[in-house]
Amino acid sequence: MRWTVHLDGGPRRVNHAAVCVCDLIYSFGGYCTGDDYRFNESIDVHVLNTQNLRWTLLPQKKDENGTVLKYPEVPFQRYGHTAVAYKEKIYMWGGRNDESLCNFLYCFDPKTLSWSRPNVTGVVPGARDGHSACVIGNYMYIFGGFVEEINEFSCDVHALNFETMEWRYVQTFGVPPSFRDFHAAEHTLGRMYIFGGRGDKHSPYHSQEEMYCPEIVYLDLKTKVWHRPSITGKVPVGRRSHSMCKLDNLKDLFRENIKVKFFSVIYNDLIYVFGGYNGLLDQHFNDLYTFDPKTNCWNLVKPHGKPPTPRRRQVGIVKDARLFLFGGTSPCPHAAVQEQTSLIDNNDTHVLDFKPRLKTLAILTVVEKRIDTTCLPKELRYEIKAMTQPNSISRPVNHAG
């Protein structure tokens, strides 16, 4: 396991949402400190090609008269929303700008690069931000978040059936996770795991007395019962705005490797948690933990290579055996001691390779040792360039006169 890539020059975004379809990662919205988010400008969509590590900004959609589409035909620029993939389409829900929240469901089609608003029925959840969303079967499950209409944190579960487009409130049993926002959710073994987030001593109300729960809790989706497993290992400090992800289908990925059983035991079904922030400690993290849902054991892991700087509000997306991590907020490295609260929004992209190929390790050695590459094949030189040259976001051409 090694951090293999660190490229600057990507989209400078915080509290964005992203999802991977085929070889492309689509990143939606977010904000950048200093920009104005009071108006309903159209959301921007940046795309990362996981093969060449280049970013592209998609052109804004226009109507038949050439006018840029606005809200509600397309989502307004927002932060604190979620995005999930289902049958190669992307569904975005929730989030806010500086003026209002949204609870419309939007669908983005990567093939046509177009937005639509599916007709939904049932009990639509109240508009919120800082919630989580994950797809299990043909359902999208929403948990938690901050519901501004009632000015409260939530610990409710809602489900959207993608086949019928019907929302319903999910009645659960047992003690749910505490009221919270900016937590993370992941699913495995027929369970939805919840970790981290920001709560309040007077929850569900928001009194500015923050709490950071270090428990990991899961909902059994068959029985709808919440469970708090007995935990062993090194438990992460409670945090919010972290990344949580899981590796899938690694048995297939490594089926030709003679050590396939080793890799499936070590990697398959583990949940990974990176970074985040604890407001009580005023501390950003860049640590990496694994949680094994079969043994209920936490483990602090230290990959080879240089990790990203401590941060929160970033996005982490797994594609095959690599974690792509980009954006987020970090303490300013040049701030004086008395100005530790100074923050910087990141525009970097990092790759954590869970099983780096010999070719990748050789490239890293060539770069580290500054070995002359002129005698190498063109394809290899191109690969080295992709892994080391800063991004310059490809932007749509403006054909207006």
From TrEMBL:
Keywords: Kelch repeat. SUPFAM superfamilies: Galactose oxidase, central domain. The keyword Protease does not apply. GO terms for cellular component: cytoplasm. One of its GO terms (molecular function) is chromatin binding. PANTHER family: KELCH DOMAIN-CONTAINING PROTEIN 3. This is Kelch domain-containing protein 3 isoform X1.
